[in-house]
Design goal:
The chain has about 90 residues and is of the alpha+beta class. The protein is about 45% helix and about 20% strand.
């Protein structure tokens, strides 16, 4: 199971506009990226850690993009290129 507070900037954990599930998804993306700014993500990689469908993941990624935490581009079904904004 996912830890409650991974190595993620504190500003996202304190942001009340974002749901907890969305914060967990961001923490998984952030931990996979480590010191990179661009990450290629497959829905299967996230599904190994939490139970989620592609439609729900896309919705959460759109929310993170609206709040200026990431930029997302879906280049194929279930495949995303994510640019972390720090």
């Amino acid at each position: 199971m996912v830890r409650n507070n991974l190595e993620v900037p504190d500003k996202i954990w304190k942001d009340k506009r974002i749901k907890k599930e969305c914060k967990i998804i961001y923490s998984l993306i952030y931990s996979r990226g480590y010191d990179k700014t661009v990450i290629h993500l497959n829905i299967g990689e996230i599904q190994q850690d939490i139970k989620i469908k592609n439609k729900a993941l896309k919705k959460h990624l759109d929310n993170l993009q609206n709040f200026n935490y990431i930029n997302v581009k879906e280049y194929a079904t279930g495949l995303y290129m994510i640019h972390l904004l720090r």
